[in-house]
Structures are given as C-alpha cells and as structure tokens.
TrEMBL record, chain A:
<keyword id="KW-1133">Transmembrane helix</keyword>
<dbReference type="GO" id="GO:0015886">
    <property type="term" value="P:heme transport"/>
</dbReference>
<keyword id="KW-0201">Cytochrome c-type biogenesis</keyword>
<keyword id="KW-1003">Cell membrane</keyword>
<dbReference type="InterPro" id="IPR007078">
    <property type="entry name" value="Haem_export_protD_CcmD"/>
</dbReference>
<keyword id="KW-0997">Cell inner membrane</keyword>
<keyword id="KW-0813">Transport</keyword>
<feature type="transmembrane region" description="Helical">
    <location>
        <begin position="17"/>
        <end position="39"/>
    </location>
</feature>
<feature type="compositionally biased region" description="Basic and acidic residues">
    <location>
        <begin position="54"/>
        <end position="76"/>
    </location>
</feature>
<comment type="function">
    <text>Required for the export of heme to the periplasm for the biogenesis of c-type cytochromes.</text>
</comment>
<keyword id="KW-0812">Transmembrane</keyword>
<keyword id="KW-0472">Membrane</keyword>
<feature type="region of interest" description="Disordered">
    <location>
        <begin position="53"/>
        <end position="76"/>
    </location>
</feature>
<dbReference type="InterPro" id="IPR052075">
    <property type="entry name" value="Heme_exporter_D"/>
</dbReference>
<dbReference type="GO" id="GO:0017004">
    <property type="term" value="P:cytochrome complex assembly"/>
</dbReference>
<dbReference type="Pfam" id="PF04995">
    <property type="entry name" value="CcmD"/>
</dbReference>
<dbReference type="GO" id="GO:1903607">
    <property type="term" value="P:cytochrome c biosynthetic process"/>
</dbReference>
Length: 76, 245
C-alpha cells in the first residue's frame, strides 16, 4: 500500500482533484460507449419483433383473402 | 488458412464466433482492468518528481496506445473491405470508429487533466497533442463519411479510403515527441531499449495496457455483433438470435 490512511489515498498527495477527475471522466466516456452498444442491441430486438409481426400480419391477410376470395378467381 | 478463414466471410458464421468469444473477453477485461487500476491507484509507489499525479498514467498511456491501435485495426478492415469486398469487414468500420474515438477522448482528457498540475496548462498546440486531436477528427470523419451516402456500400468504401489515408497520422503521433520540440515527454515503454520506468510501476501499467486491449476488443465485438444483426434483420437466424438473448 502506497498510502498510510484512506484520507491520504483520497488526497493523492494534493493531486486528488486531478487524479479522481481523470478516472471519473474516463469511466463515464468508456461506460457510455458500452451502454450505447447495449441500448442499440435492445433497439434491434424491438425492430426485429415489429418486422416479424408485420410479416405475420401480411401472411394472415393473404390467407384470409384466399379463403374469402378477392375477385381474382373470376379470371380463371 | 484460406479454407479456415473463408466461412467467416458469411456474417452468420462471424456472429457465432463473436458470440462464443465475447464472454471470455469481457471476463478478461474486468479482471485485468480492476486489478490494474487498483494496483496503480493504491499499491504502486508515488513518483519522486510528480508525486501521486503520475497515477493518471495508468489510464493515459493505455488509452492513447489503443486509440492508435484501434485506428490501425479499422484501417486494416478498410483495406480488407476494399480488396475482398467482404461485408463483415465493411461493418467493422462503424463498429471500431466510436470505440477508437472514445479512447482518443479519454487520452486527450486525461492528458489535459495531467497537464494542468505538471505543465501548468490544460492544452498546448504542440505536435503530440495536435496530432492526437487530428486522430479524433479522423475517427469522426470516418463515421460521418460512412453514414453520408444513401447507398451504404458506397459510404463504407469512402470511409475505408479515408481510414487508409489517415494511417499516415499514426507515425506522426508516435514520433512527434522526437521530431518536434514539445512539452510532452518522450516514449517510456514503446521503444526498443529498456523501458525507462521502475518495475513497481511498469507491472500495473502493463496490466492496465492488457485491460484496455481487452476492453477495446470486447467493445468492438459487441458493436460488430450489433452491426451484423442490423444488416441481417430480415433473416430468420438474426430474428431468432435477438429473441434468445
């Protein structure tokens, strides 16, 4: 241990403000990138679900239209 | 080697490889960064000239080195994208650039905060600081160019070319402290002779370097996974993946 007490550790030999500020800001910047990446993943999952629901809706509509008949049969 | 590498041109294969490797890299990042930072902050001895302010080195040097390392990686991916037209290589450009830019910001911020008590100023327009600032602008430029075109592949090509041109800045950053008079000190560990730093400080610094390396790789892997999913969203495998995790 390079410090005698916790107060000494926080004080960093008088450079406490600089040392802790640099560690804090570095953490904020790097954690920010990580957080943004995780949020983007969540956004993608949401988008994927919407895409799937739309595909299902389209498939259902197509199926029901085929059942009722949408006028296309008259061509045959 | 080509037979081994070739399947990874398929985005799905790359995704599964990343998926398998990522937990290990995240674990290594946490272990090395926590060890290195605690060792550097609390257990490494103070500097005889700079006192405890030198402890900023445990963030400043690793972030500066990997801000350049990430750029090199991005430029290599740019070359791969231009030569072999591999889509995964194109997508790794927007995966790497924000991580590299963040590392550059960290290097600049910690440098400024270290400069204030030691040099008496937050910033000087000297060669080392200016060339590192240009690196940040290069990252921003690459990102802007990548998204500036309606056709994504044209954007990727333009960004790849810019990233390759920007490589010229890397030796300028590295040798700036030798070529020009500067407030910034010379190289301490990235040189061919013995490192000019005490072993008790070098060991935690090396651990922090490993920590930042793993952090950089982990973040890039996470972002590349996102990029792959974004482009493969219409494929069933990507939809299944997103549902599972």
């Amino acid at each position: 241990m390079a410090f005698d007490s916790f107060t000494d550790f926080v004080a960093m030999g008088g450079y406490g403000l600089y040392v802790w500020l640099s560690f804090f800001l570095s953490f904020v910047v790097l954690a920010g990138v990580a957080l943004e990446t995780l949020l983007a993943k969540r956004q993608l999952a949401k988008k994927s679900k919407q895409l799937q629901q739309r595909q299902e809706r389209l498939a259902r509509r197509k199926a029901s239209r085929a059942e009722v008949g949408d006028g296309n049969e008259s061509k045959t | 080697m080509w037979r081994w590498l070739h399947p990874y041109a398929k985005p799905e294969a790359t995704y599964h490889l990343l998926q398998k490797l990522l937990p290990w890299f995240v674990a290594l990042t946490l272990v090395t960064l926590v060890t290195g930072v605690i060792w550097g902050l609390a257990f490494a001895p103070g500097d005889y000239q700079q006192g405890d302010s030198y402890r900023i080195i445990f963030l400043h040097v690793p972030s500066a080195i990997f801000s350049m390392g990430a750029y090199m990686g991005m430029a290599i991916m740019g070359a791969v994208a231009l030569i072999w037209q591999i889509k995964t290589a194109e997508w790794s450009i927007p995966a790497i650039a924000p991580v590299g830019a963040a590392l550059t910001v960290v290097a600049l911020l910690t440098g400024a905060i270290w400069g204030k008590p030691m040099w008496g100023t937050w910033w000087v327009w000297d060669a080392r600081l200016t060339s590192e600032l240009i690196l940040l602008f290069l990252y921003v430029g690459v990102m802007a160019l990548y998204f500036a075109f309606d056709d994504a592949r044209t954007g990727a090509k333009a960004a790849a070319i810019l990233s390759l041109v920007g490589v010229i800045n890397l030796p300028i950053i590295h040798f700036s402290v030798e070529w020009w008079n500067t407030l910034h000190q010379g190289a301490t560990i990235t040189k061919f002779e013995q490192p000019s730093i005490a072993t008790s400080m070098l060991i935690p610094l090396l651990i922090c370097l490993a920590g930042f390396a793993f952090l950089t790789v982990s973040l890039v892997m996470m972002r590349l996974k996102n990029e792959i999913l974004r482009h493969e969203l219409h494929r069933p495998w990507a939809q299944q993946r997103l549902e599972q995790d």
